[in-house]
Amino acid sequence: MRIILLGSPGAGKGTLAAEIDKKYPVAHISTGDIFRENVKNNTPLGMKAQSYMDAGKLVPDDIVIAMMEDRLREPDCEKGFILDGFPRTVPQAKALEKILEELHLSLDKVVLLDVDEETVVKRLSGRRTCRSCGAIYNVEFKPSAKGDLCEKCGGELYQREDDSEEVIRKRLKVFYDQTAPVISYYEGKHMFVRLPSARHGYSLLEELETVIGGTE
């Protein structure tokens, strides 16, 4: 299984990736994890990326692509991978094709988690986080049995500033503006599929297995 997961914040990429991790021996690769790992280990690429982040600038494509190439060459990717948060631009998508060609690999699917904006706003604005242990709940979909307190440690539950409706809608606009060209780039290719919100009684993984042709 070699797939790209596309989707807005709150679309369910993390949930789906976690379900895949439990069932399939594939590497879950996110841009954020790669950044953190390179910065933590003070790699040359990590130090370059850090200099841009410290200046409040976006990390250039060439650095992001180089980090991704290094990661895809690691042994755990031989059994498959999930790309979460990459590519975010069309140049990144084209660079990924060249990297995979050099590695004699091909993508199985590019999966867009297709969730409407109002559902995403409801999911994210209802999220509550424990101040003590960081556990996450949702007032509608996964409420704490202890009300405004964490079930695990009894800590106070609060709404993060970036989970307010105003901020969420701004984040979604940025996503649509930045990612729309990437979606258009893949949309005409045979491996592109739209995965709607899971139907009642089905998990996102079951929906994915259906569109990629089963679990063999």
The largest sheet, given as strand count, sense and whether it forms a barrel, is:
5 strands, parallel
What is the string of helix and strand elements?
EHEHHHEHEHEEEHEH
CATH class of the domain at 2-116 and 179-209: Alpha Beta
**CATH architecture tag of the domain at 2-116 and 179-209:** 3-Layer(aba) Sandwich
Globular, elongated, flat, extended or rod-shaped: what is the shape?
A: globular
Task: Find the CATH topology of the domain at 2-116 and 179-209.
Answer: Rossmann fold
Number of strands: 8
Evaluate the radius of gyration.
18 Å
Catalogue the unreliable spans.
none
Portion of residues within helices: 40-55%
Annotated CATH homologous superfamily of the domain at 2-116 and 179-209: P-loop containing nucleotide triphosphate hydrolases
- Quote the distance from N terminus to C terminus: 10 Å
For the largest beta sheet, what order do the strands appear in spatially? 2-3-1-4-8
Strand proportion, as a percent range, falls in 15-25%
- Report mean pLDDT, rounded to a whole number: 87
Helix/sheet category:
alpha/beta
Total count of helical runs of at least 4 residues: 8
InterPro entries: Adenyl_kin_sub, Adenylat/UMP-CMP_kin, Adenylat_kinase_CS, Adenylate_kinase_lid-dom, P-loop_NTPase
Pathway: Purine metabolism; AMP biosynthesis via salvage pathway; AMP from ADP: step 1/1
Binding site for ATP: 10-15, 127, 136-137, 199
Subunit structure: Monomer.
